[in-house]
Structure formats: C-alpha cells, structure tokens
C-alpha cells in the first residue's frame, strides 16, 4: 500500500466533515468543502500518475 491511499482516505474524511450541517453554516459558501476537494483531486492525480 502506498502512502497516497491513507492520505486520500484522510482527505475524504475531511471533505465529509467540512459539509455545513447547520443552517447558519450554509452562508460560508464553497470554501470549507472546496479546498479539501481540490487537495483530494490533486492527490488523486498524483497517485494515479505514480508520483506518490
């Protein structure tokens, strides 16, 4: 198992944890879920390319 798989799992957990569960949190926009999503996509590309 490469180092990328645990990192990818951790980022998925962060992405789910960043979802706004409360009505007052919905005004934050896409930043809480967008940044972990971008990081997860970048790491996924690195894992698929064999760089990580």
Please give a structural write-up:
- With 52 residues, the protein is mostly helical.
- Helices cover 63% and strands 0% of the residues.
- It is built from 2 helices and no strands.
- Helix 1 packs antiparallel against helix 2 (31-49).
The strand count comes to: 0
Mean pLDDT: 73
- The proportion of residues forming helix, as a percent range, comes to 55-70%
Q: Uncertain regions: pLDDT < 50 for 5+ in a row?
A: none
| H-E order | HH
| Terminal CA distance | 11 Å
What radius of gyration results from the CA coordinates?
13 Å
The helix-and-strand class reads mainly alpha
Shape: elongated
Transmembrane segments: 28-47
InterPro entries: DUF3309
Keywords: Membrane, Transmembrane, Transmembrane helix
Which helices and strands appear, and what pairs or packs with what?
Elements: H1 4-17, H2 31-49
Helix pairs in contact: 1-2
């Amino acid at each position: 198992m490469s180092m990328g798989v645990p990192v990818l799992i951790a980022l998925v957990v962060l992405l789910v944890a960043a979802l706004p569960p409360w009505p007052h949190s919905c005004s934050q926009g896409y930043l809480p879920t967008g940044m972990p999503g971008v990081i997860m996509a970048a790491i996924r590309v690195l894992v698929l390319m064999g760089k990580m």
